[in-house]
Amino acid sequence: METERIKQQIEFIREIDGLKHVLRQSYLMNGSRRENDAEHTWHIAVMGLLLKEHAIDQNLNLKKVVHMLLIHDLVEIDAGDTFAYDVKGYEDKWDRELAAAKRIYGLLPVDQQTEWMDLWLEFEEGQTTEAKYAAAMDRLHPVLHNFYTEGIAWKAHKVSVGVVKMRVAVVAEAAPALGQFVADLLEEAVEKGYLLP
Amino acid sequence: METERIKQQIEFIREIDGLKHVLRQSYLMNGSRRENDAEHTWHIAVMGLLLKEHAIDQNLNLKKVVHMLLIHDLVEIDAGDTFAYDVKGYEDKWDRELAAAKRIYGLLPVDQQTEWMDLWLEFEEGQTTEAKYAAAMDRLHPVLHNFYTEGIAWKAHKVSVGVVKMRVAVVAEAAPALGQFVADLLEEAVEKGYLLP
């Protein structure tokens, strides 16, 4: 019984290796290549731990935040990465990702299916302070990558500051001081020509 | 004051992007390329969450485990990945990694330097149940990658089962059922010729 359960869990571990093949639009900070989802996920989980003091809710459950962050992109193994400013891609994003979540979390033992699926849904719904703070990390991260690569992906997709501001609004909501930081960074990015006004 | 602190934390986030450039000996599960440390770290953090029920200490602090796992390889940004079975590389591994830890964690605000450095040292010393369970994830992971790639890295380095068994001893200590699983997997690996007897 326990052996079967372990085999099922190990199959899940094997399956999610696919996250390392999902390429994002962001480039590594030195601009050498595009980042993949596993790398991105590691990075935002560290950010979640590092920046917690700035969270507006100082009682948030940080373990839950990190768990959410570590698994929230698994759906992209099937659904692919939808670029944040791809209007067309967003039309069926939810349907594609929900189907992916059902398949991928469905590989887990039943009790874990429920727990992990619920965590993913909580992240997607973005209502709890944990989900908001997690989303803040997920949104802040590509801004840093874009800024430090002098806007490689922003320029390639002709992104303007207004849409990025909407996208990062949750940062100010979940962590006001970080919201101020990112607002200043976006202003500088426009001045430097990384991002359209 | 807060602004300066955030800038220092963001510089740390920027610096640790280097983990994505540290290549390991293990190959991705589909054998297409070598894995990097950021991908490995993401994967073992998920394993830590997924496999917790098998830990011999059911009261272990899982948030601490995940924090340890997420940051334990940062030293390799400077010190490089030392292959587990590279006897010569191990001679000065500790000196290289300690110097790296001092530089990298030293980039953090002072209070976080202490906390993160202590977590890294706890992992390296391997005495607490959290450190042992974290090490178990770190050791189990490359065995899975090797097994599912039919032993690419094991074959390349002519690794024999005895040294792998010593390396994974902590798995049985921290999580007996997983220890049995990995023992069975190693037996099968030898039978299939992935690993030398």
UniProtKB/TrEMBL annotation, chains A, B:
The keyword Metal-binding applies. GO terms for molecular function: hydrolase activity. SUPFAM superfamilies: HD-domain/PDEase-like (SSF109604). Residues 17-176 form the HD domain. Keywords: Hydrolase, Metal-binding. It comes from the Bacteria. InterPro entries: HD_domain, YfbR/HDDC2. Pfam families: HD_3 (PF13023). The keyword Hydrolase applies. Gene3D superfamilies: Hypothetical protein af1432 (1.10.3210.10). This is Hydrolase. It comes from Paenibacillus marchantiophytorum.
